[in-house]
Design brief:
With 706 residues, this protein is an alpha+beta fold. The protein has four domains: 183 residues, Up-down Bundle (Multidrug efflux transporter AcrB transmembrane fold), CATH 1.20.1640; 109 residues, 2-Layer Sandwich (Alpha-Beta Plaits), CATH 3.30.70; 219 residues, Multidrug efflux transporter AcrB transmembrane domain (Multidrug efflux transporter AcrB transmembrane fold, Up-down Bundle), CATH 1.20.1640; 76 residues, Alpha-Beta Plaits, CATH 3.30.70.120. It has 20 helices and eleven strands. The strands form three sheets. Strands 7, 8, 9, 10 and 11 form a five-stranded antiparallel sheet that branches. Helix 6 packs antiparallel against helix 13, helix 7 packs across helix 8 and helix 18 runs parallel beside helix 20. The longest helix has 36 residues. The protein is elongated, with a radius of gyration of 30 Å.
Length: 706
């Protein structure tokens, strides 16, 4: 029988002979680290400010890579109107347009001509005499498009005769609404996140200063992330998509604060043991950084799996998110501990941890009690917990995916209202036609084939490219561009033009792009989800040196994900009134919940392993739960709050992603990590570490008293 490893001897804080002899050197290292970060931050600030200059917000960045519709969009620059984005102003009076209405439209057209990129086509009247549509071609340069579109919208709504409605829609109207949404929610979302995280940190630490340090660290990581992204974009051409900035910001705030809280909790423990705070920090780093590094690796590698995605948004998010996680890890394991040590123990005021003193048991008493209750019947506990999660997962049965344009945003922005007005009085696809690009020589044959397609309301004359080799034909659909009927028409259009010999025709436009997005999201789910599972499982095996524990942890996280999906779907339907779940949510929710959920299990099980090596498996599980219960619960609350802040965005996809992740993190924090995993570990016993040797054998039970 192997000899048990003796418990580690911890230093006596009152014995000055055990104090480190290199405190002065440690202080010097701390100042050097702080100085290095001051220099790095000074360099990062101007580079971070330049990131917007390399962000790609053009039409192809977030579209499916290699899709036919994306190729059509990319070819726009080869046509005379390639730098044009049309705005469509629709005027409607339900009882029929009056002479005053037409005079208003005529006056508006005179103004529109001053901001348009080319002469305006004649206004188009509806057959019912109740509507007029004016197409305003605007320069698509992102620096001026929103401003010009706003001028068009404001002028159209100025001095309207009573009873006349005017709405700006079309591509320019959509762009304006998107710009308004980014402007109104981007800074607000960051501010909400900061306020929520600050409030939770203040509540957790009840310290006048301590709550501020993690936020300052996240701020430095945020600037560093933007600077690194700018450098990579300029040097190696990395694609920086502006559309995923809010998700990356929420991720960085969440994981950065989590890493700070986990290190801070371990440092505070060691301050009760070591008289020298430098020695306390060295010990805390040695014991906490491996788990934090494994966490960062798990999330980063999981995000990098998105580089295999077809969907442009997913692809760019992978690298951008991994950079954010890496910068957050670097700051919180170098700058943050250096600042803590340099400031000294008083940073914890008024609850200053003193060497040799006993930490308050109030914070851990409830975790001790919970552990004892779980230990009485661990199998009953984990079976009951799994059944609860399975019951929650049943709420996801019958989930509907895919949102049309009307349901993609909260409220009724002008472009959607305008689209509804157009659909009521004109062919529904008037504002957002399909586009067909083909070889110039076969242009007439392609146009002829299009006119014969059922569901096509109008076909424009072929427009030649600037080099004369291609033609572009706009196809107005009879149905709404986001309807199933329109998608069926596009399928028929595609079949018709592909059949034209040597035309090499490609179909693009909003409806074709939506079809391509659905196909890309389906591809990404089938490819990325298994890849993430395999990668994270390998990381867990390497970290825990076990096969059983990683498999059990992955199963608990998957169960937690499906439970979160079930709860969220019920909230979407019955509370928020969303008719469906955006196709993006399944993959994003899975990625964040699995990667981040495994994080908390890593922190817990890594601590269990450490305690088990000293006290035996059974006692180690209980000590691991007690030692991490408070900090992981607080960290989970912070992470859930940062993603919940996404619900302030107007885009339904972001709201749904934020809600799914927030719900999942709370389920994982308060049920999976606090109850299910400890119960499984206790029931499995030392076998959970197989094939590695079990930790220290359990100490013999004390003799019973007669």
């Amino acid at each position: 029988m192997p000899t048990p490893t003796p418990p580690a001897v911890r230093p006596n804080p009152t014995d000055r002979t055990q104090r480190p002899t290199r405190s002065a050197g440690a202080r010097a290292v701390g100042w050097l680290v702080l100085l290095a970060w001051i220099v790095l931050t000074a360099v990062a600030v101007p580079l971070a400010g330049k990131l917007s200059s390399v962000e790609r917000n053009d039409d192809t960045v977030e579209l499916p890579r290699g899709a036919e519709s994306t190729e059509v969009t990319a070819l726009a620059g080869r046509f005379p109107d390639g730098d044009i984005r049309d705005g469509v102003v629709v005027y409607v009076r339900d009882t029929g347009l009056t002479a005053a209405d037409r005079a208003k439209v005529d006056a508006d057209i005179l103004f529109f001509a001053t901001v348009a990129a080319r002469p305006l086509p004649a206004p188009k009247a509806s057959d019912d005499g109740r509507a007029l549509a004016v197409v305003v071609p605007l320069n698509k340069d992102t620096s001026t498009l929103a401003d010009r579109a706003e001028q068009v919208r404001d002028h159209a709504n100025d001095h309207l005769p009573p009873g006349l409605q005017a709405r700006l829609t079309g591509p320019a109207g959509n762009s304006l609404d998107a710009a308004d949404a980014r402007e109104s929610t981007g800074h607000a979302l960051t501010l909400i996140t900061i306020v929520v995280v600050a409030g939770l940190l203040l509540f957790t630490y009840r310290s006048a200063l301590l709550w501020l340090l993690p936020l300052l660290g996240v701020g430095v990581a945020f600037l560093t992330t933007r600077a690194v992204s700018y450098i990579l974009a300029k040097t190696i051409g990395m694609t920086v998509g502006g559309g995923n900035e809010m998700v990356v910001t929420a991720l960085l705030f969440g994981i950065g604060t989590d890493y700070a809280m986990l290190l801070l909790a371990r440092y505070r423990e060691e301050l009760y043991v070591h008289a020298d705070r430098h020695q306390a920090m060295r010990t805390a780093l040695r014991r906490a950084v491996p788990a934090i590094a494994a966490s960062a690796a798990t999330v980063s590698v999981g995000l990098l799996c998105l580089t295999t995605a077809d969907m442009g948004f997913n692809h760019t998010l992978g690298v951008g998110g991994a950079i954010a996680v890496g910068c957050g890890f670097l700051v919180m394991t170098t700058l943050f501990p250096a600042v803590l040590v340099l400031l000294g123990r008083w940073v914890f005021w008024p609850n200053i941890p003193r060497a040799g003193a006993s930490p308050s048991r109030r914070a851990t008493r409830r975790w001790d009690a919970l552990g004892r209750r779980i230990a009485r019947r661990p199998r009953t506990v984990w079976v009951a917990s799994a059944l609860v999660l399975a019951a929650l997962a049943l709420g996801g049965l019958g989930v509907q995916t895919g949102l049309d344009d009307r349901d993609a945003v909260v409220g009724n922005p002008g472009s959607i209202a305008g689209q509804n007005l157009l659909a009521a009085h004109f062919p529904a696809g008037q504002a957002r036609p399909a586009e067909v690009v083909a070889n110039a020589a076969q242009g007439p044959a392609v146009a002829s084939a299009l006119r014969a397609v059922h569901g096509v309301a109008d076909v424009t004359a072929p427009q030649a490219s600037t080099d004369g080799t291609l033609v572009k034909i706009r196809v107005v659909l009879a149905d709404r561009p986001d309807s199933d009927a329109a998608k069926d028409t596009v399928d028929r259009v595609r079949a018709a033009v592909h059949a034209v010999p040597d035309a090499h025709a490609m179909v693009g436009g909003p409806t074709a792009a939506a079809q391509a997005k659905d196909a890309a999201q389906d591809h990404d789910r089938r490819l990325v989800i298994p890849l993430v599972l395999v990668v994270i499982l390998v990381i867990l095996v390497l970290l825990l040196r076990s096969l059983v524990a990683p498999v059990l942890l992955m199963l608990t996280v998957l169960l937690s994900y499906f439970a979160a999906l079930g709860v969220s779907w019920q909230l979407f339907q019955h509370v928020l009134g969303f008719p469906a779940m955006d196709a993006q949510v399944g993959l994003m929710g899975f990625l964040f919940l699995v990667a981040l959920g495994v994080d908390y299990n890593i922190f817990l099980v890594h601590r269990i392993r450490e305690e088990a090596d000293r006290h035996g498996h059974h006692r180690g599980v209980l000590l691991g739960l007690t030692g991490t219960g408070g900090v992981i619960t607080s960290a989970g609350a912070v992470l859930a709050a940062t993603f919940a802040a996404l619900t302030s965005a107007p885009q339904v996809a972001l709201i749904e992603i934020g809600l799914v992740v927030a719900v999942g993190v709370l389920i994982d924090t308060f049920l999976v990590r606090s109850v299910l995993v400890p119960a499984l570990a206790l029931d499995a016993g030392p076998r959970i570490w197989w094939p590695n040797r079990p930790p220290l054998a359990e100490p013999p039970a004390p003799p019973a008293h007669p």
